[in-house]
Amino acid sequence: MKKRSTFLSYGKQSVDEDDIQVVVETLRSPYLTQGPKVEEFEQAVAEYVGANYAVAFTNGTAALHGACFAAGIGFEDEVITTPITFAATSNAVLYCGGTPVFADIDAGTYNLDPTEVEKRITAKTKAIIPVDFTGQPVNLDAMLKIAEEHNLIVIEDGAHSLGATYKGRKVGSQAHMTMFSFHPVKPITTGEGGIITTNCEVFYEKLKLFRSHGISKTPYSVEQGDWYYEMTELGFNYRMTDLQSALGLSQMDKIEGFLTRRREIAALYTKKLVGFPGIILPEQLAGTDSGWHLYMIQLDSGIIGKSRKQIFEEMRALNIGVHVHYIPVYWHPYYQELGYEKGLCPKAENWYEQALTLPIYPGMTDEDVLYVVDAIKQVCDRDSIA
Ligand SMILES: Cc1ncc(COP(=O)(O)O)c(C=O)c1O
To answer: Structure pTM?
Structure first.
C-alpha cells in the first residue's frame, strides 16, 4: 500500500474564517479578559446542555480542580474514578489532597463499571468521577443511584462528550457537575479551555470564587469604598480569556455539524470493519448517542498474529496517526510511587494492551477514512503475513 503523502493525525480542530474573525474583533475590543464574552460563552454552553449554570476555566484540568474544590474534596476523602482516562481526571483529586480510588471498566463500552464502583465504596468515599470515555456517555443513572445511596457527589468528566446524549438528553445537566474540555482535538475548541456545568447554585458560586483567587466583591463595604474585595478561599487564577470565549462561541454555532460528521465517520468505520478477524469494535451502551471524540478498536494479537506495537508501527509507517488512549493512570511512575499496584483493574489493563485509536475528526474526508480502513485491514490480514 502506498504511503500517504501527508500525516493523518488522530484528531484535529476545525477552525474557519468566521472563528478567526471573531477572535480578531475581540482583540480590537476593550476586553481581552474579564469581559462580556466569557459570560456569553458560559450561557451558550449552559443552554446547549440544558444546565442552569456554567463556569468557564483556562482548561479542563483547572475546571476539574474547581469541581473537586466545590465538592469539598480534602484530606481523608476518597474519590472513585476510572484508570482509562487522561491523568488530569485523578490528578484533580490529588490537587485537593484527596485519594483517587480506581475501579475497573466494563469490557464492552470501556467506561467505568457501576458494579466495580460499588465494590470500592468505603466510609471515606466522597465523590465519583466517571469519564465519558471516547465521547460515549457513562451509565449515569447507575452512577447517580449509587451516589444517592451513599451520599456522594458525581462529577462527570465529559472532556470527550460535549453534544453526546444520554437517554435523549445532552450530557451536562444530569450529574451534579460536568466538565467539558476545549483542547483542539475535543468536540469544539478554544485553544485551551474548559467549563463546568451544574444545576446547583452553591457549586456555581464556589466555582466562580475558586477560578478567581477565591476573591469576591461581596459583601460590598459601604464603609470601605468601591475598591473593596475580600479573599475568602485559597483560589487560583483559572480564568478563561475573552479571546478564548469568542472562539468558543463561534465554535458552538458549528457543533451540530461537527457531531454529525464525527458520527458519519464512526458509522463508516463500523460498517467497513465489522466482522474483520481480530478487530474488536466498540460497544455502545443502550440509550446513548456518542459524540465520537475517539474511535477505538481492540486488536486480538492471537488471531492477527502480530503485536499491537507492530500494528501501530506499520500504520504509522503509512503516515496514519494511530494512537493509544490511555495508559492506565496508576501505571504512571508518579502513581506507582504513591503505592498503587499493577493488577488493580484487570479489565482496564487488558483493554490497554489491545487498544488502538483510529483517526477521527470533522475535517476527515471519506477517502481518508477508507484509506485507514484499507490500511488496518492490510496490516491485520493474517493471510498476508509471510
Ligand atoms: C478524559 C479527560 N479528562 C480531562 C482532560 C483535561 O482537559 P484539558 O486538556 O482541557 O486540561 C482531558 C484532556 O485531554 C481528558 O481527555
So the answer is: 0.97
